């Protein structure tokens, strides 16, 4: 039996607590949280994030499986994007829902959203040691762009990647 990809939709305010829980759980399970830097609090503050970017969720019925923040340049959560680009951040899959195509569906939704908005590329960053994420992004055609690498806090290196998006000639 083939499993259907999860439904991806825009998060409702009622989803915020679930998104906070699964995002913190996913980052913690993946060894990406160091509580001394306070990033767990940032990840859990979905209400503030939703006021500045689009929060997309992947769901199976009423069960939230994953979430991501779709970000445009010049907004509060933009880290890398410049005019004509989009980015996504805080991609998280509930540890109990991994290996079900959730991350793939969320990345695809972000790419589709950026394409609809006419963005020429999507830029993202990921931890240098996150080989699973790098492998996933590679399947979409993201290419490393070392000029986008940065270190938000000591001991955390983020690698920049870019995906050129199709544009329509006018």
UniProtKB/TrEMBL annotation:
Keyword Transmembrane helix: no
Signal peptide: none
N-acetyltransferase domain segment(s): 6-168
Entry keywords, A to Z: Acyltransferase, Transferase
InterPro entries associated with the record: Acyl_CoA_acyltransferase, Bact_Acetyltransf, GNAT_dom
Pfam families, per the entry: Acetyltransf_1
Top-level taxon of origin: Bacteria
Family annotation (CDD domains): NAT_SF
Gene3D superfamilies in alphabetical order: 3.40.630.30
Name of the protein: GNAT family N-acetyltransferase
